[in-house]
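Complex 212.
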Amino acid sequence: MAKQISMAVIRRLPKYHRYLKDLLEREIYRISSKELSEIIGFTASQIRQDLNNFGGFGQQGYGYNVEELYSEISKILGLHNTYNTIIVGAGNLGQAIANYSGFQKSGFEIKALFEANPRFIGLKIRDLEILDVEVMEEYIKENNIKIAVICTPKESAQDIANKLVKAGISGIWNFAPVDLQLDGNVVVENVHLTESLFTLSYLLNEKEEATR
Ligand SMILES: NC(=O)c1ccc[n+]([C@@H]2O[C@H](COP(=O)([O-])OP(=O)(O)OC[C@H]3O[C@@H](n4cnc5c(N)ncnc54)[C@H](O)[C@@H]3O)[C@@H](O)[C@H]2O)c1
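Predicted structure with nicotinamide-adenine-dinucleotide bound:
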């Protein structure tokens, strides 16, 4: 990719990806930026600007070729790759993520879960083994693991992240409500569900105050 793409654009790409997939499922193969704008909720000029970052796949008077655009955005998002993935912490959230088969379909191959609680070690979620966290670093090295999903309590998250970096992990999907401090060039994406819920709460309150 020759051009540096802003994080704001990157954050919008999964939404384009989702809507384009939906169009393909409905056998719609061509769409104007105006029509795309109506379904996706971004302005037509925003869409043109965003997609121009990648060379602009639209043609004057034709619109966008949905298949081509979908395939390009998939490539930009790295979804043509397969990522060997592990989950650390096999509690409520770790199990829920392991039970969702959709991640696998997008190339995130969950290989195993890791636990500190001996009561969980040796059990299975679907066909995935729950292994002792003591063997996690060795497993990462031996199985070419690229991504780790942290689903431990926040007290253990930093220690786990340090071990993951030491073992050579490339990316961390962090659900623990803590900002990880990491050396090295590991990529971290935080999903702080409570922050999102509190934003919803703010918006609800704002709306209620406006109608008072
Ligand atoms: N469940 C949710 O909906 C939710 C929502 C928002 C945030 N979170 C966050 O996600 C994380 C997990 O939540 P949960 O509800 O699944 O908790 P949980 O207590 O059900 O599961 C956490 C698991 O991590 C294991 N664990 C603890 N230390 C460990 C270590 N060092 N190595 C390996 N495993 C270890 C525990 O034994 C436990 O099984 C928490 O940080 C929580 O704040 C969860």
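Residues 88-94, 114-117, 120, 133, 151-154, 156, 160, 175-177, 193-194 surround nicotinamide-adenine-dinucleotide (CB under 6 Å).
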